[in-house]
Design brief:
By secondary structure, this protein is an alpha+beta fold. It is built from 3 helices and 3 strands; from the N terminus they run βααββα. The radius of gyration is 11 Å and the shape is globular.
């Protein structure tokens, strides 16, 4: 298994220039694979690439 890097919702909000709640809604709508540690949501970089490629973000 390869080592995966993870991106936080805050980092995605900065990258996509939107609010953190918007990122969370977007992840839920598109059924993204995420890791949730308490209140922290981490998104694998491969999943971010898939979302950005599929939806032109």
């Amino acid at each position: 298994m390869k080592n995966e890097t993870y991106i936080t919702v805050k980092e995605l909000a900065e990258r996509w220039r939107c609010s953190r709640p918007s990122v969370v809604r977007y992840l839920k709508i598109h059924e993204a694979k995420v890791v949730q540690l308490g209140r922290n949501i981490l998104v694998p970089s491969s999943e971010v690439a898939r979302l950005e490629g599929d939806n032109g973000l």
